Amino acid sequence: MTATLDLWPIGNCQVSALVDADGRFVWGCVPRVDGDPLFSALLAGEAPQTGFWSIDIEDRVETRQQYLRNTPVLVTRHRDANGGEVEIVDFCPYFRRNGRSYRPVAFARIVRPLAGSPRITVRLRPTQEWGEPRQIAAGGSNHIRFPADAMTMRLTTTAPVGLVLEERTFRLEQAHTFFLGPDESFAGDLSATVDQMLTETTAEWQEWVRGLAIPVEWQDVVIRSAITLKLCQHEETGAIVAAMTTSIPEHAGSQRNWDYRYCWIRDAYYTVQALNRLGALDVLESYLAFLRNIVDDAKGGHIQPLYGVLGEPEIEEREAAQLTGYRGMGPVRVGNAAYSQVQHDAYGQIVLCNTQAFIDQRLLRMSGLSDFEALEKVGERAWQLFDQPDAGLWELRTRQSVHTYSAAMCWAACDRLGNAAAALHLDERSEFWGQRAAAMRARIESAAWREDTQRMSATFEGDDLDASVIQLLDLRFLTPDDARFTSTLAAIEQGLRRGSHMLRYATEDDFGLPETAFNVCTFWLIEALHLTGRGSEARALYEEMLARCTKAGLLSEDIDPVTGELWGNYPQTYSLVGLINCAVLLSKPWNSVR
Description:
Blueprint: E1 8-11, E2 16-19, E3 25-30, E4 36-39, E5 52-57, E6 60-67, E7 74-80, E8 85-91, E9 95-97, E10 100-102, E11 107-115, E12 119-125, E13 127-128, E14 132-133, E15 143-146, E16 153-157, H1 161-165, E17 170-171, E18 176-182, H2 190-210, H3 219-231, E19 233-234, E20 239-240, E21 263-264, H4 265-277, H5 281-298, E22 306-307, E23 318-319, E24 333-334, H6 345-355, H7 369-385, H8 404-423, H9 427-448, E25 449-450, E26 455-456, H10 471-474, H11 483-496, E27 497-498, E28 501-502, E29 517-518, H12 519-531, H13 535-547, E30 558-559, E31 566-567, H14 573-586
Antiparallel strand pairs: 1-2, 2-3, 3-4, 5-12, 6-7, 7-8, 8-11, 9-10, 11-18, 12-17, 13-14, 15-16, 16-18, 19-20, 21-22, 23-24, 25-26, 27-28, 29-30, 30-31
Helix pairs in contact: 3-14, 4-5, 4-6, 4-14, 6-7, 6-8, 7-8, 8-9, 12-13, 12-14, 13-14
């Protein structure tokens, strides 16, 4: 079967898995999202023989899938040609236990007969070392061991172990439970315990969703995006990964295959910004703890664009030769060399994430003077570097420029430090940072504006079109009624819009001309259209983007503007942020329906 991105994420903020339209686990890493893939079939080309976990029904004629309401618990129903039907419930346990979060490195499956006399076959073929089949060690009457250097896993089940080992087809006459977790004895009654885990996991997620402040329109879209964004947070440290996958190409044969299972300062900023709009302060608070450690370790110096989920600074990039790639389109990359790049926008995003903590009295830990003093070191870097060349937010690997987006983010760092100082009644510091921000603004306006073409250039040196310049609106650098913004928006639309989609840029980069549109850029366009008085056009474009979502209600990074096919890593936090932000912006108010 040809791989697609029609995938359903499950997870518990420690591990995650992607389940395909046949109900197979085809991607999932242990002991955390950036670990070794236990399930690697997604990146193993056509008809992979390993790296998946399937529970198939004999003579299947139909499969239906949906999440349990307001959870990442997936229900897959298979029906056979004779009217037999089974239900499979997939989840990763996640709930509070003994005053702390219980989120084991574990995947649970419950398969139940619903009708007729269905016959099933269980095929569990995990991998290690990036695509090598795991060997099976001696098990017991109710378990099978899968040794590996990274982490030995154990399947404990109520199903006949011999039939599972030999992948023999058998009649499903009662519910069976499968728990794939650490190599340790499962304490207690397996079925009863996993059933209780399911109950508590469902309640935990539904309670979390209950606390979201969602818009009245597109509620299902916002809820599903919010849940998935939370799944992208490594709860242990608060880091937020850009996506759950690596090496899904940006378009066919592009070689633009990158590992996104790390915490980009930029992507995480957009994620917490979107979730803040919904009141999901737990994600913000956890991420701010991660950022405080990053800032401490930098000691007032260089901030990298990305870090590992434990804050690791070095993420060496290599290729995994054992895997042929998504649809055979390698390479499969592990790690990301962008960690060594210079990207100055990170200084702005750190301050922007932190500003709320000086003002929002709901937070368990509000920021104080010592936090402000640490952030001033970040602001100092922003002041020093805002008009210096960097690789930019699109992480160009072979050239540098002074990017307007990076400069504006550095301006925002100093501007918001002034706000934070005011909240702490530090009048002198507020004035100090305000003056710096004013000087930076004047420099950016002078260097980026092109009088002859009436637009803000993406770089200080050239006259470049780039969708990132639309973000001058979100940063409050320009206002919707500023003639400079409206003329810039018109130029970007003319040069980068492809029907209903928006390119990042339309010039050659390290890999030639881009062929796919970048989904978050389309959402930036929708926001700009709405704020500049083109509300009906913005709503129509948003509805078109919703039609592009997978059956799970999610988006990847890129889309083919001609065919509408999704490309790039999945699920992509940028794209989910766009789904949320535009819904909040475009929705009619609650008082219109109450």
